[in-house]
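Morning, I've got a small favour to ask if you have a moment. The fold is given in discrete form, as structure tokens running alongside the sequence. I'd be grateful if you could look everything over and explain what you see. No rush at all, and the record is pasted right below.
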Amino acid sequence: SADELRENATTVRNTRVLDPVVTHPTFERFEALRDFYRFEGAVVDVGATFAPSLDTDRYLINGELTQVVLGTRELNLADLSWEREHVRLTHGYGLALAGANATTPEGSPSFLAGGLPVETDPALAVQLDQPQIYHGEGLGGYALVGTTVDEIDYVDSATNQDVPVRYDGDSGVGMGSFIRRAAFAMRFGQIEPLISNFVSDDTRVIYVRDVHDRVEALAPFLRFDADAYPVVFDGRIHYVIDAYTTSDRYPYSQRSENGRLFDGGLAGGSFNYVRNSVKAVVDAYDGDVAFFRMPVEDPIADAWMSAFPDLFTAFDDMPEALGDHLRYPQDLFRVQTNMWARYQVSDPESLIIGTERWDVAQNPGRQVRVAAGTETTVGEDGLLVTREERVNPYYALMELPGEDEPSFVTLRSFVPFDENDDRRELEAFMVGETRPDGTSRLVSYEITSPNAPGPVLVASAIAQDEAISSELSLLNRDGSTVEFGDLLMLPIGDSILWVRPLYVAAEGDASVPTLQRVIATVGEGERITIASNLTEALNELFDGEDFSDLLGPVAVADPDPAPDLDDGPEPDDETPPAPSTAEEVLAEVASLYDQRQEALTSSPPDEISAAELLARIGELLATVEELDAEPEPTPESTDPDEIDA
């Protein structure tokens, strides 16, 4: 109901319409700014393929805890001369950050931090005094600092001039003697460190710059999560990497089902015991590494800590600002949800027969009218089994059922198990959370309604809705490409609110996706709405309610009207009357279509104007049917089952 929506204001306000996978190329386009920068991002499973993803976190914006999408500006070292790669371009620079619940009027990320030099919006409670990234994700090779020439800190966006800097940190090994220079020349397989005039007695070499390589070199007995995520505290960028202890010899324990985990981390080899008992933190400037021992019972971690007491740091010594950004690791969560689907039953007979067994929900995919794909696994009888791919976990900032304070959780849903993989009803969902005090929890919520749709059924209902289908056909033409963001499941009261952002990319290699529509439905999906933003979608879904006050200043901005592409005189103060007949609507659509074609064929193509005009065309076509012709909550969350994590 509308009242329940208002009672869950934090959940609704933090609906993540800015998808970290879809908007990765948008960050690259607007914030990389130079060819020698890139946004690395973790590679994630997006259905039939893999794609880079930005990170998500939460920061204070205007004093309210808000989910954000962010990425660090790493070095792109391809096709550079030796001097630029190793002497001049020694580090990445800063980050880009945008609220996950907001876009610009054109549908692009509304950046709260970014640019060269880095600037932050006063509303964002982040202070970045040392933006240089000498140690980052995917950063190989070596850099020479303290040479006879200055490094390039960044290229000023306003003046297009190189801004010089000299490294003032503690990282690196001295190259003062001839023997050391020769040794490093042999190590790196290049003669330049030995003969270059840039190398002086004060020069140091920084190597092992990739944060994963760095922590693995220091603690090879730990296994590390595939995704390192950036956190800004103490004026610097730090990377947090979840570390695990594992064993394959724990008595009376089932071996893990690793699913589609990625290279490294928990993907390498099976195990039947795992604990996320260590958080590794790498300073992006100095490369300092701290291994914080989390307050988790783990005799294996205790043994390593006894063997190497100087390597580990007690959790009590972790900076509070860092603790506020800890999150539950998704590699571990994938393994746990795969296992929980089988072992959540309490009756031994049901466990053996499998009558109450669950399965992780099927993946609804992202492409319009394209299935997510299939995966092949080894069944219990040793035969290969092909079935639909499973839905990915995602991070969300929400008020969990029965709780008043927001939690930053990762979430995954379940459906009933079926040998033919035909069951798609929503059976339950699970969340994982790591709190600022270092403790973690898993909470399982069962759905009481027998007809609650799972993700694939909701996605199917969206695709079959006549109004949405016609709008998708309109948007997905003239070379434009339509792509869905994650299908978001938000527990609201005793029901489920489903939200799905929709992006459009114009034709051309240089185009990037922009958020053009938001789709919303609730309960069993009897009613589905599509609108230009979340506010309008919710207003329509709840019979004309006005939720603009609920979403507040960080809500998705309403799109501006289509711009006048002619440089003619200023328009009159009086607003022209809206078309009153279907013929007038179609005439205006034809005019706007011609303007859109002009925008796309201009040099350079005006993609933003084209997207705005396309959105206006969709709005007008939606009114034709109206001119011609003039929710009941079902899924209920049970009391949470607390599970030791």
The radius of gyration is 26 Å. Residues 376-385, 553-576, 629-645 have pLDDT under 50 and may be disordered. Residues 212-326 form one domain. The chain is about 25% helix and 30% strand.
